[in-house]
Structure of DUF742 domain-containing protein:
Amino acid sequence: MIEPGEERTTAAVRPYVITRGRAGSSRDALPLETLVKSSGSALSPALQPEYRRIVRCCQGLLSVAEVAAHLGQPPAVVQVLLADLIDWGHIVARPPIRVAKRADMDLLRKVLDGLESKL
């Protein structure tokens, strides 16, 4: 029991309870830099509070890492919950842009030449 004036040092609800014991989802893990946004669809009244908090938080574009920080939950937990919300159509995800394996040297040379001509 916590004494008056004493601070709680652990979360009231353990992360594995929030995800119902799941460590993964039906889809690949969402990279932390994936941008997510609420789709605006109506939420079921039976939806657990963590899902509702995520949807409220995602009114604008946020990364998975930012959502985890806003909720104060581990990123792995938020990834599972976001995957559920994406599957149910409540969240839209925009995957990160892939890094090119090799830059087009001709294009880079043209850009550099253009920049140099402006200076």
Observations:
- The first helix runs from residue 15 to 18.
- The CA atoms of residues 27 and 113 lie 44 Å apart.
